[in-house]
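Record type: monomer structure entry
Structure origin: computed from sequence
Chain ID: A
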Amino acid sequence: MTSTRKYLLPILLITSCFVLWGFANDITNPMVKAFSKIFRMSVAEGALVQVAFYGGYFAMALPAALFIRRFSFKAGVMLGLALYAAGAFLFYPACLSGAYWPFLAAYFILTCGLSFLETSCNPFIMTLGDRSSAIRRLNLAQAFNPLGSLAGMYVAMHYIQACLSPIGSEERKLLDPAAFEAVKSHDLEILTRPYLAIGCVILVLLIVICFARMPGDGDSGRPSAGKGILRRLWSDTDYRRGVVAQFFYVGVQIMVWTFIIQYGTSVFMNQGFSERDAEVISQRYNILAMVLFCLSRFICTALMRYFRPAAMLVIFALAGALLALGVVLLGGMVGLWCLVGISACMSLMFPTIYGIALRGLSPDDSKLGAAGLIMAILGGSVLPPLQGLMIDHLNVAGISAVNLSFILPLLCLLIVAAYGRSALRSPSDR
């Protein structure tokens, strides 16, 4: 009982960070479409938002791990929150500039903070209790991440997309420079407000965590010597392959949640809806996908008491691949429902890959090992623009470019399934 009380407050505070980075991830995905419209850009140019966003994850993961090894998990969380808030507040000068690149810079700084948070919080949660239940505990903490994602989607839908100018993408191309600048300034101001609000929330949490006492002060003991750590990480098959699997999984997640709006918009515009109404309806399906993701994650966490995590990873990845094939071949509303269903299959993947990859490592090696798994989030930066290029330029008779582009998520899900299968053969899974 004393042990439970010892861990309760740290777990609650760290889990709140999972909620906050979920908000950032999923208020951002619809911004690809929003920025494309606001700045009259192509889909591939709009997807540079994801390049900046997940590029920050990649760039800061290793420095974050070194920082945590030198100081503590708590220090890593605090610095992550500070960078998150700084990036959010930088949206204000970006709005005043009226240019695209300052927003990309703000996203990059914001996600440098998220990289610190994920590099700190994921392994920290795994240490707060029995090691044998670490993967299940991480899945439970990660189950609250979609709650933040749902909040981000809700804000994107009701306080950004619904409030943007109703002038469509094609109509904006016909505006004279003065009229275009007026519409752009209005839309950028709408887009900026939620980021300023979340920046204030983050500052409050930062102050609370600053004064909260963590077990062992957030693992502030001196790190062991790092000699040979890279060799140990590379020699661990679960870890090495886990980094690759995480790269492709994150790519799938971001592609599905970014281009569900693109896909849905094309479906509903074919049914006679205006572009703006089609986007709003598509966002509702995006929110439904996240609800399924959230519910499935809680269900999967419970099922892990009875089934091996690696086996569940294989089954869910193959199911997701079949649904992606449905998106490619079936199209229309059936394809849209297949696309929504992929989210239920993705729910257990990130924490399960993460937990399997780190399960054979020592606690100190896990700190640096976490950096590789967070750097693998680069998949969310590399793969969505590639899918955007497929949408812009791919032409095959009888299949729309949007539908055909989902071959890329399908292939990525098969790679995740292959990782789960290899993990089943690992001695650590027996």
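Annotation 1: The chain has 22 helices and no strands.
Annotation 2: The chain has a mean pLDDT of 82.
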